[in-house]
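Lecture notes, unit on protein representations.

Consider one protein chain, 514 amino acids long.
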Amino acid sequence: MHQKIVILDFGSQVTQLIARRVREAKVFCEIHPFHAGLKVCEGATGIILSGGPASVYVPGAPQVDAAIYKLGVPVLGICYGMQVTAHVNGGKVIKADEREFGRTDLEVLGDDPLFAGLPKSQMVWMSHGDRIEVIPGATVIAKSANCPLAAVHAPALNFRGVQFHPEVAHTQFGAQIIGNFLTKVCGCRGDWTMGSFIEEEIARTRTQVGSEQVILGLSGGVDSSVAAVLLHKAIGTQLTCIFVNNGLLRAGEADGVQKLFADHIGLKLVYADASERFLTALAGVSDPEQKRKIIGKLFVDVFKDEALKIKQSGGGHVKFLAQGTLYPDVIESISVHGGPASVIKSHHNVGGLPADLGLGLVEPFRFLFKDEVRAIGSELGLPDEVVWRQPFPGPGLAVRILGDITAEKVNVLQKADLIVREELKKAGLERVIWQSFAVLLPVKSVGVMGDERTYENACAIRAVTSTDGMTADFAHIPHDVLGKMAGRIINEVRGINRVVYDITSKPPGTIEWE
């Protein structure tokens, strides 16, 4: 059994970053909503209370069960997690006269293990409008100009709190602070590695599946690809992969998936070319949410059809469906406040398949983040083009064609998108950039080509840098590289005569245009 850190989420936008920092220190962790109850903390080696947007003294603000501080394990409170600790233990939290947002100089006091090996003066990231005046029995271990209790240690509560955010990259030694809490305060061994995970998951899958057959929807993306190879290693020919071509894939993708997984790796692969079926269903549809719903439902229908064929052809003992579900999918499906979460875009990676097919679920990556899945892919020997493949939306190019979808528009965008990828690879930027692609706009403009007037579509290039996709900055691609992309697209792709570059970050924009 691996040691476990439990993270209780109070609604912070960056709670997943806490988990990532813990995993980077080779310690397993789980995220639960703050109201999950003490049971989720059973067996924990330590507990982390996240930040959050509320003020503790506002009616209905998230609270913590004071019994947590009597469980006999160290607790770390971050921002709101520190404030709520003061609030439920007889301390005092007030609205600050001067708020602290952004980079702040921190002065470390004393020799607490939380700051072991770190400079006495360091830069941290603050984001709070309230201030703690008193935590009973607490010793101040760090302060800032506007925050006299920037970090504290309360031995009677087995608690340490920081008013800043060590999980964000802007905090100079944030990863080391979290690492110190894990190793020097909680005594974690740091034995969570992807090499050990592979062997453990193979054994777990064999126990779960037994001699039954498993089907998996293979998209060619990182998650489903690595899951397919891991399960193939675990159960061999008991696994059948179904690859649905919805006609909205990138250029050459359908052939590439078949060659790699069927020909080279030797997986049992069913290829379903449903291109015409999807394009027909999408004809005349411009609303992006409607596109996603049509594609999601149709994918389920096609997948069910192929699964039924497998059963009818002698695979009637198919009992399990495998999915490349990741931990962020699980976390985001649970509302911290117990109500419906805000939906920016609908997703269909787990779109109703288990209930409709009556199959048990095999989800080897249910508690993993994307970078951990990539590490597993490398361990399993998958080529870099698969392991480091950029995220690609489930609806494919349908959400990169603004307006209605036609086969002609898909063909135009495939060519433009291929040029973007080729030029970034030539420039050595494909690993630097989180996601890059072309977007076909429903906008026509006048151009001049060969002394003749043109009136064709505009194309946008979108490229962002990110660590997790939750936030993103537009990529600062050299102008000469952008120039090569634009020149090639205009010259090689009929139907486009103008190229623009999207310099919107996330937020306020999303990475995809639809």
